[in-house]
Amino acid sequence: KYTGTPSSGPWKDVPFTCEVNFQWPDKLKMTTVFKKKGRSVVQKSTIVGDATWSTVDGKPADASLAHMRAKLKDARFNLADLLSVDDGSLVLSAPEMFEGNQVQVVQATSMDGLRGTLYFDQQTGYLVKEARHEGATSADKHFVEVHLKDYKRIDGGLMFPMMCDMYSDNKLTMRITYSDVRFVKELEGDVFTQPPPPPPPRSITDRLKSIGIHVKINGVEQ
To answer: Is the pTM of this model over 0.70?
Structure first.
């Protein structure tokens, strides 16, 4: 769970809370609540394998889930490659300075060709920055950085960054503050269950009947 405020896009400057559920290897659900002028808007987006769906305030919504698929790729890039070097490659570069501390620079390539640069604080060993280029085409490409800070010990004893700043082309686009991070063997309940389709829209005649008005055409009640 985390909170944030976008600095660009349709929800610019609108605070939100978000809960993200991962189930390896191909399930991801994001529930985001935006609060604007005293009103809450709840957006739920889910990926299960090749299936995707999204709702806004419980109603089906047409939404691109490309950013969520990118998040799944990022998770594999950040975790799987570091835990299993055989699936990709890690190359050490010369140390640099970042926010007053010396960091070890690692050029990483994932097993599906994603490339990025990881920066580890030499004193603590914590990952403090990620950098990579994103975009499907050369026209879309932009430089992305994620700064990780405020590491705390969470469930299971793992150290986790409770705050991250996200930059696009050197501009701060979002600050995320995590409030709850837990690891479970398997998520329970209907977290990844697709909701049933909405009922078909009622005809005008049915709507009129619902308020006590009956329509006759050529003497025949409709």
So the answer is: no
The rounded distance, in Å, linking the Cα atoms of 152 and 138 is 38
Long-range pairs, 159-164, Cβ under 8 A, ≥24: 159/126, 161/126, 161/127
Strands 115-121 and 101-109: antiparallel
Residues 120-159 pLDDT 10s: 998 888 999 988 877 656 666 778 899 999 999 887 678 8
Neighbours of 107 (CB within 10 A): 13
Structure tokens at 75: 């998770």
β pairing state of 89-98 and 171-178: unpaired
For residues 191 and 21, the answer to whether their CB atoms sit within 8 Å is yes
DSSP state of 185: S
Average confidence (pLDDT) per 10 residues, the chain, 222 residues: 76 84 76 85 84 82 59 47 50 85 84 78 90 70 88 82 89 84 69 73 71 69 65
Contact status, residue 55 vs residue 46, Cβ threshold 8 Å = no
Closest CA to 7 of 176, 180, 177: 176
Contact 51, 67 (CB under 8 A): no
Q: Which of 48, 19, 24 is nearest to 181 (CA)?
A: 19
Query: Given the structure tokens 């690891």, which residue do they identify?
Result: 183
Alpha helix ranges (H) inside the chain: 66-75, 81-83, 204-210
For residue 80, the 8-state DSSP code is I
Tokens of 27: 């399930």
